[in-house]
Amino acid sequence: MAESTRLVDLVQAGLDAFLDDREPMLLSVSPDLAPFIDYTRDLLQGGKRFRALFCYWGWQAVSGVRTEDRLDFDPIADPTSSDDLHAVVLAASALEIFHAAALVHDDIMDNSDTRRGRPAAHRRFETLHYDSRWSGSPRGFGQSAALLLGDLLLGWSDELFDSGIQLLAAPDVRDAARTEFNTMRTQVTVGQYLDILEERAWNSFPEGDQLSRAHRVIVYKSAKYSIEAPLAIGALLGGASPSQVTALRDFGLPLGIAFQLRDDLLGVFGDPETTGKPAGDDLREGKRTVLIAIARAALPANASSLLDELLGDAELSVQQVRMLQASIRDCGAVDEVERVIEHNVRVALAAIEDAPISAAAKRQLVQLADTVAQRVS
């Protein structure tokens, strides 16, 4: 895992250096833009860096080159490097900025108060407005400012990604990686729309479609962009063959589904001290997840109706959250989701068992699969 640890450190250093480079640009426009940099720095600190890691190991899976000694450079300070590894690190860093943009937008739509134990970006802007005694609505200002921050981060992720792929000599490799990145952006955006659609229009669709619709949200909002796309981008940066890309996709998609199913369990039952989010946050936000779809099908009619009535109530009390948690657990929904997680991990691992990828990458992907499926935050 030393190689993965070094990559995470490189990505953090690269992100810090990228923001150092962008800060004078923003402040030359106005010192009032300092919060854009400050809030972004906080958002990009830490995190599990799954997307960066899967991008790197997707590349390693097809390059098969041991690189521990080569992971000793500054990905920003040496922009003239033509090293393919440098390109991969920049692309991995771009994925982390893209993820940050998605989190900012997601927190606005979910009206979330916190992110990684800190106030969400829109809440920080809201507090800035309130403390500064500006006119108008603090909430409206906070949401508008955070929306713009998220848009800025999307643009920055594109800039960093392009700076990486331009280091590659082969135009077809650059084009393939860029196409995958573009597809990922589209899928996340439409998946996010499907998520908020399910929260508000779920009762307009046939009862029997609830589970399949929740599964579709998982695939497009999270599974593809969390694991499958980063793996494919990394592999394409390495000039992967179609069979290699297919094997990595067949690994990445079911593992991405397991990743989001674990996230859904944590959104209802997670410890706030480790998740950085309030207990039962998904219940207050009204998330129509696979967990909820399974629970609704298993609960008696009166209990299912009560779940529908309370789900999405931002003012749920601690006692109500605990009552809903007990209902969801006691009806067997949690055990069923755990079984689905285990099934998807098995499918993912089977996909790379005999895949034409490097042995070193295969070992790391197996370890990452366990980490993703068993994580507690």
TrEMBL record:
CDD domains documented for this protein: Trans_IPPS_HT
Keyword Metal-binding: yes
Top-rank taxon, per record: Bacteria
Gene3D superfamilies cross-referenced by the UniProt entry: Farnesyl Diphosphate Synthase
UniProt-listed GO biological process terms: isoprenoid biosynthetic process
Keyword presence, Chaperone: no
One Pfam family, short name: polyprenyl_synt
Cofactor: Mg(2+)
Keywords: Magnesium, Metal-binding, Transferase
InterPro entries: Isoprenoid_synthase_dom_sf, Polyprenyl_synt, Polyprenyl_synt_CS
Family: Belongs to the FPP/GGPP synthase family.
Protein name (Swiss-Prot/TrEMBL): Polyprenyl synthetase family protein
